[in-house]
């Protein structure tokens, strides 16, 4: 049970199929297509519906706008694909409250473990990769339930609702279990994620929040 | 004597097993002869101390790592030693120059959930403390 190598991937199609290519990605089940995330250079973006799949990463970036009332789920989700030089859309991200094809879908983001873990793997969000604080305004400003990043594990099954509620992410108190138990052998775990902003939200201009995987090995 | 960050596993009988540096990607917990009940675990610390667990029914060891989605390589966050006695687990978290001891229900010893890798011990007088070398 030495330290497993982990690979983050996303499905850049609207087809809800498993990552059968494991660490390599590529063509998956049900005509899905899985792309490996370059953890050193790529990033996850929640953007306005003006942004189009395949837009150049050096072109205009359209952030989504704080709503005048109520809440707003990010209309579109992208990976800023550094090597390809484009914003690559993740069509199944989020719920039907967004403007993509997401909803009660299972295979959106994957993390492939090439070996066992000694405990349940968790998806977390922190102010920075120091993993020391989680009070960024995007993470609820000290109130984890108000975090704008909301995720749901789909390793075992689809959410069961096209408007799934999920868990607001903030530190290790509000996080998502990506499996029901420790991982016994190489496998993928899956999750979906959305960003939801309220009309009263004021963005923190110096934010550098990160999503992180936490796991055990021996 | 083992080097700092090595762990000595003393068996009820037979030779002791000394792990490699437990901060490595393969800490060696699963490489010892598992059919021999463990009498004690000793983690040697760079401060001139050792963390000792002895007398428990079973033991676990694991490393805690994080992998940021945007940020490059995985990072070791902590080293954990655990000793189980009945339904409770003595846990020691070694991280950031600190040792934190806690008692958790078995099955909820890390992150509110169970862990894998438990190895049988030789029950006796329980020791769970930090001592000088």
Work out the radius of gyration of chain A.
16 Å
Q: What would the average pLDDT of chain B be, to the nearest integer?
A: 96
Helix content bin of chain A = under 10%
Q: Could you tell me the number of beta strands of chain A?
A: 14
Overview of the molecule:
- The complex is a heterodimer of chains A (218) and B (133).
- Chain A has one domain (6-214).
- Chain A is 0% helix and 32% strand.
- Chain A has strands at 6-11, 26-27, 33-36, 43-47, 71-73, 76-81, 86-89, 109-113, 122-126, 149-153, 167-168, 176-177, 187-198, 210-217.
- In chain A, the strands form three sheets. In chain A, strands 1, 2, 3, 5, 8, 10, 11 and 13 form an eight-stranded antiparallel beta sheet that branches. Chain A has a three-stranded antiparallel beta sheet with strand order 4-6-7, with no helix packed on it.
- The relative contact order of chain A is 0.21.
- Chain B has 133 residues and is mainly beta.
- Chain B has one domain (7-132).
- In chain B, 0% of the residues lie in helices and 50% in strands.
- Chain B has strands spanning 7-11, 17-18, 38-44, 49-54, 58-68, 75-85, 88-95, 98-105, 119-120, 127-132.
- In chain B, the strands form two sheets. A five-stranded antiparallel beta sheet of chain B has the order 2-1-3-4-10, with no helix packed on it. A five-stranded antiparallel beta sheet of chain B has the order 8-7-6-5-9, with no helix packed on it.
- The mean pLDDT of chain B is 96.
- The A-B interface holds A 1-3, 6, 8, 37, 39-40, 42-44, 116-120, 122, 124, 129, 131, 172, 177, 181-182, 184, 210-218 and B 25-27, 29-30, 60-72, 74-75, 77, 80, 110-111, 113-117.
